[in-house]
């Protein structure tokens, strides 16, 4: 059997360009030149992996940790300083849920569309 190569991870959201801008500022990834209001993408580099954002009508943001609307996808980002990274991301538009299961080891934040992601101390 041939192995599949992962090419893209795509998030549903109400505003692809805005969510792509958040992740571009947070990660330094490069915006794809064909991005538009319906679909935007960021490319990770030479491996061809992309992070995509597609517009969905009547988008419902995840409700973490409540599973009324499940989290759908979850990213972990390794960082050096939890407090510094948290402050930077909150300034960019992330939010910090009240529930933090292990704040000394990682921080749970949500992006502007409500997707939870974690900062993990490297």
Could you outline the blueprint of secondary structure elements for this entry?
Layout: E1 8-13, H1 16-27, E2 30-31, E3 39-43, E4 50-55, E5 75-79, H2 82-92, E6 106-110, E7 116-121
Parallel strand pairs: 1-4, 5-7
Antiparallel strand pairs: 2-3, 3-4, 6-7
What does this molecule look like?
The protein is α/β, with parallel strands linked by helices and 122 residues long. The protein has helices at 16-27, 82-92; strands at residues 8-13, 30-31, 39-43, 50-55, 75-79, 106-110, 116-121. The strands form two sheets. It has a four-stranded mixed β-sheet, with helices on one face. It is globular and about 40 Å long. The model has no long low-confidence stretch (mean pLDDT 90).
C-alpha-based Rg, rounded: 15 Å
How do the strands line up in the largest sheet?
1-4-3-2
Shape: globular
How many E-type strands? 7
The helix/strand order is EHEEEEHEE
Q: How much of the residues is beta strand, in percent? A: 25-35%
